[in-house]
Specification:
The complex is a heterodimer of chains A (about 170) and B (about 400).
Chain A: H1 3-30, E1 32-39, E2 47-48, E3 51-53, E4 55-57, E5 59-65, E6 73-78, E7 86-91, H2 92-95, E8 100-103, E9 113-115, H3 121-134, E10 137-143, E11 149-156, E12 159-160, H4 161-170
Parallel strand pairs in A: 5-7
Antiparallel strand pairs in A: 1-4, 1-10, 2-3, 3-9, 6-7, 6-8, 10-11, 11-12
Chain B: H1 2-12, H2 18-31, H3 35-58, H4 65-88, H5 94-121, H6 128-143, H7 149-177, H8 181-193, H9 195-203, H10 206-211, H11 213-233, H12 246-273, H13 279-297, H14 307-327, H15 331-352, H16 356-387, H17 393-400
Helix pairs in contact in B: 3-5, 4-5, 5-6, 6-7, 7-8, 7-11, 8-12, 9-11, 11-13, 12-13, 13-14, 14-15, 15-16
The chains are: A alpha+beta (about 170), B mainly alpha (about 400).
Chain lengths: ~170, ~400
């Protein structure tokens, strides 16, 4: 095998990693950020491995779903000036005309877990439990033009969870 | 040490002189690979990878994300360039070969750990299946730089796990295009059951056989192992009753048709795929394939459970494997099969009989049978060995063990 081919082969994984990072950064920078309330997590089992588990608590419109064909549905996001948008499920073509739209069903990536530092797991769990009672826990998503959502941060009382954890550990 | 002992024995028996013994030792030294060194090196690299994965999973908060990612990329580049340097050097040098192997193993695992780090840093919610699939595909050229058995086995395990986890993804794709439930079930079943044949075909790719013979050999070996183990477990189908719904029966019929087509195609292709093997080997492979297909295909149509039939079929299957072992002149495999048959016979009595008297009589008979087999083995093994072309000394070596 000549040296040029060998060099390309050994650099393939490196380029893959760079590509993954670039893709994630691009998504975060180009997407529109939306905050969604989170709820429904089992307080007895918040921790699963080293991530917090929860589910999104959408602020539904009067009619929640106006779409029949699940393979062509999307979430329509309407900005009404609240922290979280109003949501309902419509045909993708209609959803694209809303303030924002997001993939629905199996096309949507899992948005029910947030990785946390191992040493701060118990503290994160306490903060989230407290936020549950105050309804002050939100998941910030960056949604691009194709409707693909990526988690940006977990916001508790208006601050990123990581900042709160750092502050608590300093105190 | 084993070789020195043997050489001493042969010198004492005046089979060889001291000059010949020295020449043999010198030859072995030049051509042997330090297996322990390679195995330990591989294990060491693997341990480091597992340690890195564990550190990443802890999600160390004190380090900013940009620092984690930058360090990871720099480390990746250092490994890549080190590997490139080693690959560019003289390939015949054993030290370079060892170094290349260790670096490939380390880089292989490091890539997976890095992808997990990126996923954690950016809170990417994708599945483990898709992570492994991307990792397996993008590291394939890297793995092909290696030559050793440890790396090959590691890669086979990684690929098999990736395939198993992504079966569900195949199922989702199938369901998008096929609405009939029975059809989707049959195709999914075929993807699972015929996967060893798929890996076997991969192992026979001409480029792999010619340029990476160890990888091709190991992949083929593990594929056959999967087929043999699958055949062994198929007798448990007789312990369950078969499905009764119309859709289930349709699925089974279609699945068996697909398996029949695949098995037939493989039977016809064996001489071409294993062109360097003898006709005896081809016959053995075909016999094992046909047997596995037949015992699996016939085990799914009964309405009641028949554990006795399952046990008898299992023993028959092991007799076929014992014959196959003799055909490929593997005395150890033949002995293992003989032992398994005897053990399985004993278990039948526990399965079949209820009362202590009946079970006791059965066990006595089974034990007598086992002893008969042992007596027969000692009396007849030499002639059986000669019949199957095994060396007469193989028996004495087995006796010493």
């Amino acid at each position: 095998m000549n040296n040029k081919n060998s060099l390309i082969i050994v650099l393939i994984p490196f380029f893959l990693l760079c590509l993954l990072i670039a893709r994630a950064e691009y998504h975060l920078s180009m997407g529109t950020q939306w905050d969604f309330a989170i709820t429904g997590y089992d307080p007895r089992d918040l921790l699963r491995g080293h991530y917090l588990r929860f589910r999104l608590d959408y602020d539904w419109q009067t009619s929640q779903k106006q779409c029949v064909d699940n393979s062509n549905c999307a979430y329509c996001l309407s900005d009404i000036g609240n922290k979280a948008p109003k949501v309902h499920i419509v045909d993708t073509a209609i959803a694209k005309q809303c303030d924002g739209y997001m993939h629905y069903g199996e096309r949507q990536a899992p948005l029910n877990r947030f990785y946390i530092p191992e040493t701060q797991a118990a503290l994160a769990e306490d903060l989230l439990r407290q936020a549950q009672s105050d309804n002050s826990a939100y998941l910030r998503l960056s949604i691009n033009k194709e409707g693909i959502a990526q988690i940006v941060d977990l916001i508790i009382e208006g601050k990123p969870l990581e900042d709160l954890l750092k502050k608590e550990s300093r105190d | 040490m084993e070789l020195s002992k043997k050489l001493n024995q042969w010198q004492q028996a005046k089979l060889i002189d001291s000059t010949t013994a020295d020449k043999i030792i010198e030859f072995e030294k030049q051509h042997s690979r330090p297996i322990a060194l390679w195995a330990l090196g591989g294990l060491g690299a693997f341990a480091i990878i597992l340690g890195l994965v564990s550190i990443i999973a802890s999600n160390w908060m004190q380090t900013p994300n940009w620092l984690k990612l930058t360090t990871d990329l720099i480390l990746c580049l250092v490994i890549a360039l080190s590997l490139y340097r080693v690959v560019s050097l003289d390939n015949s040098n054993p030290r370079n070969q060892w170094l290349r192997e260790i670096l490939v193993i380390f880089y292989y695992g490091f890539t997976l750990a890095s992808m997990a780090l990126i996923g954690q840093t950016y809170q990417l919610g994708g599945s483990i299946a898709s992570l492994l699939l991307v990792w397996t595909l993008f590291t394939l050229p890297l793995v092909l730089l290696g030559r050793g058995k440890f790396l090959t086995v590691l890669w086979i395990v990684g690929t098999a796990v990736t395939y198993a986890l992504n079966i569900n993804a195949f199922d989702d794709i199938i369901r998008q295009f096929i609405s009939q439930q029975y059809l989707g079930n049959a195709l999914l079943g075929a993807l699972i059951i015929l996967s060893p044949l798929l890996f076997m075909l991969l192992s026979r790719l001409p480029w792999l056989v010619n340029h990476r013979p160890i990888m091709a050999g190991e992949l083929s070996r593990y594929s056959w192992l999967a087929i043999i183990i699958g055949g062994w477990f198929s007798h448990f189908l007789w312990y369950e009753s078969s499905p009764k719904s119309v859709d289930d029966i349709k699925s089974l019929q279609l699945l068996l048709t697909l398996c029949l087509i695949a098995t037939t195609a493989m039977l016809m292709s064996i001489p071409k795929l294993y062109s360097s093997s003898s006709p005896h080997h081809h016959l053995m492979m075909r016999t094992v394939l046909i047997t596995v297909f037949l015992i699996s295909a016939t085990a799914v149509w009964h309405e009641e459970t028949h554990p006795v039939i399952g046990a008898i079929i299992n023993i028959t299957y092991m007799l076929v494997l014992a014959w196959a072992a003799l055909t490929i002149q593997s005395i150890k495999l033949f002995n293992s099969m003989t032992a398994l048959i005897c053990i399985r016979l004993l278990f039948i009595y526990f399965e079949v009989f209820g009362s202590m008297l009946a079970t006791g009589i059965g066990l006595v008979m089974g034990g007598l049978f086992t002893l008969s087999v042992v007596w027969l083995w000692f009396k007849k093994s030499a002639s059986i060995a000669r019949h199957f072309g095994l060396s007469p000394t193989s028996k004495s070596e087995q006796d010493e063990q």
